[in-house]
Design a protein that fits this description.
The complex is a heterodimer of chains A (527) and B (313).
Chain A lengths: L4 H18 L5 E6 L14 H10 L4 E3 L6 E3 L2 E6 L5 E6 L13 H12 L13 E7 L2 E6 L6 H4 L10 H6 L5 H11 L9 E7 L3 E6 L18 E6 L3 H9 L5 E2 L7 H5 L4 E6 L4 E5 L17 H9 L3 H9 L4 E2 L22 H11 L5 E8 L3 H14 L4 E8 L1 H10 L4 E2 L1 E3 L7 H7 L2 H8 L5 H10 L5 H18 L2 E6 L2 E6 L2 E2 L2 E2 L5 E2 L4 E2 L2
Parallel strand pairs in A: 1-10, 1-11, 15-16, 15-17
Antiparallel strand pairs in A: 2-3, 4-5, 5-7, 6-7, 8-9, 9-10, 11-20, 12-20, 13-18, 13-19, 14-19, 21-24, 22-23
Helix pairs in contact in A: 9-11, 10-12, 16-17
Chain B lengths: L1 H30 L4 H6 L5 H11 L5 H13 L13 H36 L4 H15 L2 H15 L11 H8 L1 H28 L1 H8 L4 H38 L5 H10 L3 H29 L7
Classes of the chains: A alpha+beta (527), B mainly alpha (313).
């Protein structure tokens, strides 16, 4: 075994050195990403590679805690929600600066929240739909709401409400806000944000550099401004195997999205820490619940008993073993990952072939019923899922066939309803269960993730929960919604996966939050 | 004068080729299933957002209107704006072209350096063990997928022995030589296998030709026979093959650039297809068409230099 005496001594030495390493300053962390950013602007970021980097360059008034379960102060040192739930008062810290040293004040906050609320600009404006006005008096910011909104604090901790420098936008070239944003991003350099870093290098699709913001407000353990690092250098390496080889060759310090089939191998490498960060990522499959398919033929999955049967017949533990090599857990909350707030902990269709057989018999499902699983072409995970489900569902009389498409086609099929079942995944963008619940279950939004499932009771509860300021009552509403959803089974409930990031043992303090954000501000690289 | 006319005629013939390529690629891209608006805004976008994006990109206009806009803009040198890169298509292509160009030329050079000498050794030892060994090794190379060869080279020469970097493209001429050696070699191993087989057969045929037998009977030195008579004549068909290989090589860059994390046109094409970035796919296809046409023209010119009978035809 590799972990012999030398390794033990190394581990002990490392442990002893940790307090010193935690405050070691300087150096560059080389990070290999699976995909590159295209535009890191709070309101225009719409892909995970952009969204997850916003927090490094820009600060929000409030923040999600590292475990994603609570809201803490950010640029605002304190915050308070009025009793009627219609006003939020925030107190900005004194002496805040952007990364070029210029002052960050209330005017920048009003400007930034104005951009974030403008439905003609970014796609996230709806998240602040209840905000009727934002005013400032010195360092005091008042956010007025048209109705009580229990999600407002979470929204003020979400990337799209991050604060940008009004002066930089005013001076930028371009006739529209979008053109100005693109020009600012292309130029790079300090000034537009107040995050721990500013962008100091960018080559589209190839690499990106973040340099330390010496004016950052947040202090490290040594009493000096974070970050500890001088720089983070990103290489864009889409191929999983190449990304890992780059780490093994010592050319980078960390790689994200390690395939689960490689986790055990990297975990055994003494030079690498294999991190599995808890996430809000769930893997599920929407089921078309409409009475007829898009081609007009009868849809066997319209029968709730058949949907329940395939859920019972799916051995989630076996899938997790096959696809994730054990690095995951079955979904226990039907609408969200267990790390999302207000998630239920249910026995969600544990494997039970007897129940499954009884349900299909009761439903009168004909033997040899053809069902199509739409998967992503080229995805080995999806190929494994298909092969496993084909075997698992055969005893029910279901002849599962596969249809392989690319991501854009799958998205279009989901919207048009031209599918039986298809693979899918989700990561929360907001530290509140409303986003994922609206996506998966609230039918007016997107036909309940394209399934066509509709429940008046569910919709009523969802709408009521959007105004419910009493936390216990809201929790009850979410519990009820999850029960209704579990019973109706518009999804094949599968599993939750962590974020797998392999990091050199020379690196300490890097975090990926459950929402996916990459946090480098407390990372160090030992020299 | 006749040579210039020949070149001009060939250049004129490229015009209908490009028009045809433009029509085909325009239609093919739009036949792809999947909505570019979803590819841009993501699955979570609302229907209203998607409708706004489609309107902004002109995707709601009739196809003829869209094509006419694409055609007239292209004639004026404007390939449009990339949807995913949010910048002009021509600037993105110009940024990536040098890397792919370097990779392609490096690969061709390596292919010739590998295939040329070995083809001679195999042909001159026809049926003997050197011939058998060379042909067997190349057969293995031909039967392995490019990405697999690439991963083997990366694992041993880069990750384990650390002679080369695992990925990237490097800066400056020598930086690029160093960084692009492994991806070029990956492509070259496949291409050289094809060239070696063809060149070996051609050399054998030429060696058996009467004029070579006559030269031998006259007592000309072997080096002179091989250089002046055998190589020159054997190269004619190989040059054609090399030209065709460069066309294939362009498509090979899609895989190679992805495996080796080289930010070139091939990797860009893959990203553009997945993102349904119509203007970028169109611009890249046109660029590849222009490059391949230029290579074919150069191939023809080179052939006519080697074989005067082919001139003016």
């Amino acid at each position: 075994m590799k972990r012999n005496l030398t390794a033990a001594i190394l581990a002990a030495t490392t442990a002893l050195a940790m307090p010193a390493l935690a405050q070691e300053r300087g150096g560059t962390l080389n990070f290999a990403r699976y995909d590159g950013s295209r535009l890191i602007d709070p309101i225009y970021a719409d892909r995970n590679p952009d969204i997850w980097m916003v927090g490094s360059l820009f600060d929000t008034l409030l923040r999600s805690s590292d475990d994603g379960k609570s809201i803490v102060g950010g640029l605002a040192e304190s915050f308070e929600v009025s009793e009627d739930g219609k006003t939020v008062t925030l107190m900005l810290q004194d002496g805040l600066k952007f990364s070029d040293g210029s002052a960050l004040d209330a005017e920048d906050v009003l400007y930034s929240l104005g951009r974030a609320r403008n439905p003609d600009l970014g796609p996230w404006a709806g998240m602040l739909g209840n905000v009727s006005d934002v005013t400032a008096d010195g360092n005091t910011i008042t956010v007025s709401l048209s109705q009580p909104d229990p999600t407002i604090l979470s929204m003020l901790a979400t990337f799209n409400t991050a604060i940008v420098n009004k002066d930089v936008f005013d001076a930028a070239a371009g006739a529209t806000d979008q053109e100005k944003s693109a020009a600012i991003f292309a130029a790079g350099g300090p000034g537009v944000g107040s995050g721990a870093f500013y962008m100091c290098g960018f080559e589209q699709g190839a690499s990106m550099d973040f340099c330390a913001n010496e004016h950052h407000w947040e202090m490290g353990a040594d009493g000096k401004p974070l970050p500890y690092l001088d720089k983070v250098h990103f290489d864009i390496i889409p191929d999983d195997a190449t990304r890992i080889l780059k780490l093994q060759a010592g050319e980078v310090d960390a790689v994200e999205f390690v395939p689960f089939s490689r986790v055990a191998e990297l975990d055994a490498d003494p030079a690498i820490n294999m991190n599995l960060f808890p996430s809000t990522r769930i893997i599920y499959s929407p089921i078309n619940t409409r009475e007829t398919r898009a081609d007009g033929s009868a849809n066997p999955l319209n029968d709730v008993r058949v949907r329940q049967a395939i859920n019972y017949a799916t051995n989630k533990d076996a899938l997790i073993g096959l696809v994730l090599q054990g690095a995951g857990q079955p979904m226990t909350a039907p609408l969200m990952s267990s790390s999302t707030r207000l998630a239920s902990k249910l026995d969600l269709y544990s494997y039970d072939m007897d129940k499954a057989m009884a349900l299909v018999k009761e439903a009168g499902l004909e033997a040899g019923t053809k069902v199509t699983l739409t998967t992503l072409a080229g995805s080995s995970d999806d190929a494994t899922i298909f092969a496993a489900l084909q075997q698992m569902w055969a005893p029910l009389g279901i002849d599962l066939v596969v249809e392989q498409v690319d991501g854009a086609t799958r998205g279009a099929k989901n919207r048009s309803g031209e599918f039986d079942i298809h693979t899918y995944g989700w990561v929360d963008d907001v530290n509140d269960p409303s986003q994922v619940t609206g996506w998966l279950g609230y039918s007016p939004v997107r036909s309940a993730v394209g399934t066509g499932w509709e429940s008046a009771k569910f919709n009523e509860l969802f709408e009521a929960s959007g105004k419910e300021m009493d936390q216990a009552a809201r929790a009850q509403q979410y519990a009820e919604m999850q029960d209704i959803y579990a019973e109706a089974a518009p999804l094949l409930f599968m599993y939750e996966t962590p974020f797998a990031v392999a990091i050199s043992t020379a690196v300490d303090g890097y975090v990926q939050t459950p929402l996916g954000a990459n946090i480098f501000s407390r990372a160090t690289v030992s020299k | 004068m006749a040579g210039l006319q020949y070149v001009l005629k060939r250049l004129a013939l490229m015009v209908p080729t490009f028009i045809l390529v433009m029509i085909i690629i325009f239609l093919l891209v739009r036949l792809l299933p999947g909505d570019p608006a979803i590819a841009i805004a993501g699955d979570k976008a609302s229907d209203a957002d998607l409708a706004a994006i489609r309107e902004k990109l002109g995707l709601n206009d009739p196809l003829l209107v869209q094509f006419w806009l694409f055609f007239t803009n292209t004639l004026q040198g404007d390939l449009g704006r990339s949807i995913m890169m949010r910048t002009s298509v021509s600037s993105v292509i110009l940024e990536r072209l040098p890397t792919t160009g370097f990779l392609a030329l490096f690969a061709v050079t390596l292919s010739l350096l590998i295939a040329g000498p070995l083809a001679f050794v195999a042909a001159l030892n026809r049926g003997k063990w050197p011939d058998t060994v060379i042909r067997t090794v190349f057969q293995v190379g031909l039967s392995m997928p490019v990405f697999y060869i690439g991963l083997i080279l990366l694992t041993f020469l880069a990750a384990q022995l650390r002679w080369f970097p695992v990925g990237g493209s490097g800066d400056g001429f020598f930086g690029q030589l160093y960084y692009l050696f492994l991806p070029s070699m990956t492509v070259a191993l496949y291409t050289s296998a094809i060239i070696m087989r063809n060149l070996r057969t051609s050399i054998i045929e030429v060696l058996d030709a009467e004029y070579v037998q006559f030269a031998r009977a006259k007592g000309l030195p072997t080096r002179l026979i091989l250089g002046r008579h055998v190589l020159r004549n054997a190269l004619i068909s190989t040059i054609t093959l090399l030209g065709l290989s460069i066309g294939n090589l362009m498509s090979g860059t899609l895989v190679t650039e992805t495996v080796f994390a080289v930010p070139g046109l091939g990797r860009l094409m893959l990203e553009a297809i997945f993102a349904r970035d119509y203007p970028l796919i169109q611009g890249l296809t046109l660029t590849f068409a222009v490059l391949v046409s230029i290579v074919f023209l150069l191939t023809d010119l080179f052939q006519s230099l080697l074989d005067p009978r082919m001139r003016l035809t």
